[in-house]
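A common beginner's mistake is to predict each chain separately and then try to dock the pieces by hand. The better habit, illustrated here, is to supply every component at once so that their relative placement is modeled jointly.
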Amino acid sequence: MRTIIFLLTAMLCPTLMAANTHAFKLDNGLKVIVKEDSRAPVAVSMLWYNVGSADETGGTTGISHALEHLMFKGTPKYPLGVFSKTIASLGGQENAFTSTDYTAYFEKIATKHLDKSLALEADRMQHLLLDPEEFKKEMKVIQEERRMRTDDNPQALAYERFLATAHLASPYHHPVIGWMTDIEQLTVADIRLWYDQFYAPNNATLVIVGDVKEQDIRKLAQKHFGHIPKKPPLLRKKQPEPPALGKKQLHVEAPAKLPLMLVGYTVPSLTTSDTKTAPYTLEVIAALLDGGHSGRLNERIIRGNEMATALSVDYNLFSRYQTQFIVFGVPSSKVSLEKLSKTVTKELELLKKELVSEQELARVKTQLIAQKTYERDSIFSQAMELGMLETVGLGWQEAEAYEKQIRAVTASDIQRVANAYFNENRMTEAHLLPSEIQEVQ
Amino acid sequence: MKTLNLVLRLTLCLIIFVTQATNASSTSRWQTQAGTPVVFYEAHDIPMLYISLAFRAGSSYDGQLYGLSTLTTHLLNQGNDGMDANEVANQLAATGAQYASDNSRDMLVMHLKTLTEPQAYASATALFERMVASPDFPEKAFQREKTQQAMQIRHALESPNEVANQAFFRALYQAHPYAHPVDGDTATLEKIALHDVKHFHKQYLNRENAILVLVGDLSQTQAHALSEKLSNALPKGKKAPQIPKAFALHEAVDIEVPFPSTQTVVRLGELGINHHNPQYFPLMVGNYTLGGGSLVSRLAEELREKRGLTYGVYSQFLPMPERGPFLISLSTKTSQAKAAEDLTREVLSDFIKKGPTEDELTAAKQYLVGSFPLSTASNRDIASILMKMAFYGLPDNYLETYTSNIESVTHADIQKAFQKHVHPQKLLQVSVGKA
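With all components supplied together, the output reads:
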């Protein structure tokens, strides 16, 4: 389950950012965002590629993630193992992550070593070896990763199947790690094509947050990335869903110990919505329902009528395509999934009928805005936010608009948005049913 | 993500710290008049404050009622000073503050994160003080939280990793209070009555048994005032007794747990060290080479990089107040589990015999010293390290001497320490999967 995040405060502290955030573009199209934060003599450097699992097609799902793994397998200049060993010898930590909308690589390192880590990043943007033997071994590692994360985790399996049902034709249909059969049939030539097509300065954003000066980063970025040629830009086609023809339902049987309910609605994100009001209103609704100890679901269904032992809400307003507003729930021992689902949807119905009180709305906004202050404590979170916003096309400045947009949401916005989106025709419901534990030989 | 985080969330002590960032002059320590030790780190860049109030009240103090520490932890904000749980939650939320609590085998901690804007700070800390002073333990909340905990216990058992961790601790610690899972088990949880919770609270959540860490945007005067208030909010009592001694297994033990997973999850290890072991630094430096460095360790190199056998393999020493475990963790598809286990043992034995090469030792020191500033880059990191130092009784100059302690470790120190503490012939192995 998603960890429950607590929220924030009204009247207080504006989240000043602009003053110390700088952005510029190299001639080859590489975007660079620098945020100065000199509390410790370190920096986080992230290179975001504008490609993720949502760009994949059937037969080669998981290829963005597979390429992410192979990016650690060497270049002619820095052969196998050298990247990780070099970063470690400088006291740095490195890793990478792939999502539906992006693939990103990062180093956390003492500021004085940024020169070296950027040299390594720029090198692997252009000169990846993609050795067939290393490819074969790494695909085995990825299969183990999939077994560990998904196949042996009943709730993750249910979530994967939920998404595949909720997203009929849209690009979030398949899992980021890919279907096992696709992982098994990927070839090194497939990966090479993907790398050649998407790994270019004009399809990337470099984000650096920490004890740095904009002027120094300008020089370093130019030095290491300035000479890399650009490639033809990626043109994405829109992939709207065909019209919904009614509620979708599915059952997932797996060796779980507890049942799980997922109720989701197809909703817009900031990039797909005609207005910004709807996504920010959905963000407020998510916090209203699941604001840690104080959310309505917790107060009414966990502590109130005690019908659930866990409830949480997931909605990402920064996704590239239309997405899902999902309520996850584990029913109490004598409550059926159907009963819990009815209780949860009744709470959503209530939002359509009754205006939220000014007091409750103010509290939820306070929570959301305070959270932004807390996030300033982590240079990693700050870099994540900037990189994600820029990569999905919203622009990093959206981070600064957040507080204003949240404050602008009204009780009638909530009522209107609830009426527009929490409808059966937009709904997908999944039930995870614990299967009989098989006898093991 | 390419690598896993630590497989086990135990009471491990972070082994990497920074001197530069935790500027000694910003850290001050005192005792409240009521006798609670306080550590305060002053940081004004962000208008926020972390409060951590810890007690020696982890699950190793459960007695025979396994799960008692967890249940008490969950009940601390479920009704306080006459307010019900909803009032507490809503009033706190209205200030923007966030409350959380957690417990481990060693400690029970109440955390508050608040803004330091005067009005929010005053309301949030006043509420927190009431929460600390007066958990009411309402009967209805007790029944509900107990039922929820039973569900949590069940849920954990659908994860082969969790099943392996529990089996490993049970077999390693036997009758010792570290043996049972932190959340307890269904049978003992059932026996816990409301008065047991109240008794546990009275016995362990007192001013003498507490440690308070404050990190953030407060003046010295404010920090002193807050610490006095929180300490006074706690009842008088006494420090919890020492954890009894744990004894090593006399011989190798192999345990196989049948489980309907596609992978087999393996834990391999034995009793390790506490924080005060004189060979602490040689073991930490050596372990980086063996299996600590995520993609660059020998285990990662042999199992993952060369053979694609696993997504992650790690070795760790997890010091605790009494001897914590040394353990190696990995998972792989069942048909190759035996091969992975054999290879792991081979790498371990070879390392014990020969220790690291000169290059490996240099690389380990470079990483452990060089990454020092990363581990105190945020207020959250600083709060967590200062708590670990205070709770486990590490010297106040631990951070300042960290680099020289790492630098001075020799090849011979590592070899000697591993030969003394790791015994390939007496390892406990737990395998969870379709045997």
